[in-house]
Amino acid sequence: MDISQSVIMTIMTAATPLLLAALGELIVERSGVLNLGLEGMMATAAACGFAMAIVSGSTTVGVLCAVLSAMALAGLFGFVTLSLGANQVASGLALTIFGLGLSGLIGAGFVGTSRPPLEPLFIEGLTDLPGFGKIIFGQDFFVYTSWILILAILIFLHLTRAGLTLRCIGENHHSAHAIGLPVLKTRFRAVLFGGACAGLAGAYLSLVYTPFWSPGMTAGRGWIALSLVVFAAWRAERVLLGALLFGGATVLQLHAQAASLGLPSQLLSAVPYLATLIALVFMSLGRKSGTVTPGSLGQPFVPER
After folding, report:
1. Do 288 and 162 form a contact (C-beta atoms < 8 A)?
2. How many other CB atoms sit within 10 Å of the CB of residue 184?
3. Are 217 and 30 in contact (CB under 8 A)?
4. Is the pLDDT of residue 126 over 80?
5. What is the rounded distance in angstroms from the CA atom of residue 66 to the CA atom of residue 204?
6. What is d(CA 246, CA 45) in angstroms, rounded to the nearest whole number?
7. Is the CB of residue 195 less than 8 Å from the CB of residue 74?
8. Spatial separation of the C-alpha atoms in residues 218 and 186, rounded to whole Å
9. Which of 170, 280, 181 has the alpha carbon at shortest distance from 229?
10. Which residues share a beta bridge with 212?
11. How many whole angstroms separate alpha carbon 156 and alpha carbon 5?
12. 38-91 residue pLDDT tens
């Protein structure tokens, strides 16, 4: 039971940054905006969060700065694509390149520096229960935040007027504008929310998952989070399954490398990404084209046109 519990904990640890980033992107895409800048926002947040945690000596300050830095980049993306009507794909790719470069600049003075990771929750009599104690009662702040986000997003999208407005705008922004819905304001708020979630994911990488900073530590997780939204068919509960799938593949390749199977390490490192691609292929084969994608996804909206 202890071994199984440790494996599950490891999988959940690997899945958490993906889950946080993908949940934020899900809200962004349900509003009709495609933000390909997740990787850059996560990298910048990881660098800012770690740097401020070292300078201030406070993990809380580090997390807050990580979230604000990612929201600032998201706000820049929102201004360019929503206010100026720029192409969302090109703007998202530019944001990724800019974010990766900015993270290297911010974190240059902190390479090789480490700090104690965020302590997980411990409840006497519950955390030490065999089998499931640590899984339920021994996680850290970020894991519980991701669980709360899943529930909150489900309630928001399906049980609130604001969620219905968001979905209407994502399906057809022209019709939504015609009936008086605030298309640009709603989308800008969604983009900022996606930035905040990317900031939490980046902070988790540098303050919990690997409590140090190194260039390129996001390792493509922003792109995987983007693919998880498609894999989940824009449904929050299925994002969790996709994140756990990637987390399981990550743990599998780490154990395979430790077991010295004789396979190239580069091939084993590619296992999580191959697993995600295979899952996406099967999802595409088993789903009718165009039945779940938000109708206005990636399309710019300018009321004057």
Report:
1. no
2. 16
3. no
4. no
5. 9
6. 22
7. yes
8. 29
9. 280
10. 114
11. 32
12. 999 999 999 999 999 999 999 999 999 999 999 999 999 999 999 998 999 999
The CA-atom distances, in angstroms, between 59 and each of 138, 182, 202, 208 are 18, 37, 13, 10
CATH 1.10.3470 given to domain 2-112+127-285: yes
DSSP assignment of 65-123: HHHHHHHHHHHHHHIIIIIS---HHHHHHHHHHHHHHHHHHHHGGGBT-B-PPPPPP--
Contact 146, 88 (CB under 8 A): no
Tens digit of each residue's pLDDT (9 = 90 or more) over 128-178: 777 777 778 888 889 999 999 999 999 999 999 999 999 999 999 999 999
Cα–Cα dist 300/37, whole Å:
16
Please give the structure tokens belonging to residue 175.
Answer: 């019709």
Q: Which of 195, 155, 150 is nearest to 41 (CA)?
A: 195
Are 147 and 20 spatial neighbours (Cβ–Cβ below 8 Å)?
Answer: no
Count of positions (residues) in the chain: 305
Task: Check residue 301 and give left, alpha or beta (phi > 0: left; psi -120 to 50: alpha).
Answer: beta
Residue 81 CB contacts under 8 Å (≥ 6 apart), including other chains: 33, 87, 88, 91, 300
81 CB-side CA count, 13 A: 32
Residue 27's nearest CA partner among 239, 218, 173 is 239
Residue 293 is given by DSSP the state: S
Residue carrying structure tokens 């691609």 = 277
